[in-house]
Amino acid sequence: MEWKTDWGLRGRMAFTMFLLFALYVVFVGVLTTYFGNFLFPLIMLGGFSLAQYFFSDKLALRSMGAREVSADEYPDLHRRIERLSQQADLPKPTVAVADTQVPNAFATGRNKKNATVAVTTGLLRSLDEDELDGVLAHELAHVKNRDVMVMTIASFLSTIAFFIVRWGWLFSGDNRQGAPVIVAILVSLLVWVISFLLIRALSRYREYSADRGAALITGKPGALASALMTIDGRMDRVPEEDLREEAEMNAFFIIPIKAGFVGKIASTHPSTENRIERLRELEREMETA
C-alpha cells in the first residue's frame, strides 16, 4: 500500500494547535490579571489533564462500557484487525468491544504503539465482511494519521476552560469583589466556545482523511460507503435511551448522533451524504487509474 501523507490534515492539525496555544496564553494572562490566585487551580487542573492524557485510552473505553477482548473471544475480529494493520503498516492495536446495539466504532490512544480500536456488538451484527473491513480500516487510518492524539490534547485544553466556566466561582479565595469572578468566567466561556468550534472543524476534516485512508488500506472505497449507509439507516432504529447513553462519546463515533440544527453546527463529522459522495468519486478514480 502506497500511503500518501495528508498534508491538508497535517497543516490543519498544526494550525489548530497553534491557535489553541495562542488562545490559552491570552487566557492565562487575562485570568492572572483579574484573578491573581487563579494559577493554582489551573496548574492543578493541568496536572489532571496530563494524567488523563496518559490514561485517555482506558478512560474512553470505560466511558463506552467497552472492554479489551482476546483472540479466543473474538477470533474473526482479531484476524481482521491484524490483517488490516499489516496492510496499513501499523502495529496491531488492542481490540475492545462494547456491548450495545448502537452500531459504531472508535479509536483511541496516544500513539501507534498503544492504540485501541473498539467496536460495538451492534456494529458487528449490522455489517457484512467488506463493510466491517471498511469501518475498521477507517479507525486504523485515524491511528496512522495521528489525529487521535491531537484531538485528545486539544480536548483537554478546552476542558480547562469549561471547568472554569462551571466551577470558577469556587476559586475566588478572599476576594470579595464580584467583578474579577465574572470576568474570569466570561473569558473562560469565550475561550471554550472558540476552542469548541476549532476542534469541531478539525474533527470534520479528519473524517474525510480517514475515509481516504480506509480506501487505500482496503482498496474498496465502496465498502466503506455501503457501511456508512447501513449504519446511518440503523441509527434511526436505535432507542433514544441508548443514544443518550452513548452521547458523551460522540466525538469518537464513525457516525455522529444527530441533534437538529445545533447538532449540525457542533458536529464532529461531516454529513453521511457528503462522505459517501467523496468515496464514490475516489472509487471511480481508482477504477480508472
Strand and helix layout:
Elements: H1 7-34, H2 39-54, H3 56-64, E1 66-68, H4 75-87, E2 94-98, E3 105-108, E4 116-120, H5 121-126, H6 129-145, H7 147-167, H8 178-218, H9 221-235, H10 240-246, H11 260-265, H12 272-288
Parallel strand pairs: 2-4
Antiparallel strand pairs: 1-2, 3-4
The H-and-E topology, N to C, reads as HHHEHEEEHHHHHHHH
Estimate the global geometry from the Cα principal axes.
globular
Strand order of the largest sheet: 1-2-4-3
Q: Supply the helix-strand structural class.
A: mainly alpha
Mean pLDDT: 80
Rg over alpha carbons: 20 Å
**Individual helix count:** 12
- Number of strand segments: 4
User: Regions with pLDDT < 50 over 5+ consecutive residues?
Assistant: none
- Calculate the terminal CA-CA distance, rounded to whole Å: 15 Å
**Percent range for helical residues?**
55-70%
> What proportion of the residues form beta strands (DSSP E)?
5-15%
